[in-house]
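hey m, so remember when u said the tokens were messed up on ur end? i reran from scratch. heres the input so u can diff it against urs
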Amino acid sequence: VFFFNDTATTEIYTEQIVGSVRCVQETDTNRALCYLKLNQFEKALVDAQKSLKINPKWIKGYFIEGEAYKGLKDYAEAATSYFQTYSKDTSNTEAKNKMDACVKIIRSQQAKQQLSLIHISEPTRLLSISYAVFCLKKK
């Protein structure tokens, strides 16, 4: 039984990555989960992004990327990653709720630091779903 919150498990996944090309996408995201549990958000982000380079449609990769960005307190990037998750699977209410929570934090920061929130929307599908990019800048 593997637990996601210990260094030994992280090392096992590292060995799997080195030894197996076929399972790299899943192994990267599993190791990223370990890094998240160890609060090693930079490493989790690297692994999540590696899995997304292999498969840009990998929903789990976007969700874990969002978790890593949230751990790094980069709420704009986290919201974008959660949005990518939700836009690919609209039944994923956890991703939507986390995206909404990040937007709420951004708006709170906006009010506290007198920052303006810029929302740039670009269509990613023929439907009415947009890709949201949030930037904070001083007024």
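this time it looks ok to me. Strands lie at 115-123, 130-138. if urs says something different then somethings off w ur setup not the seq
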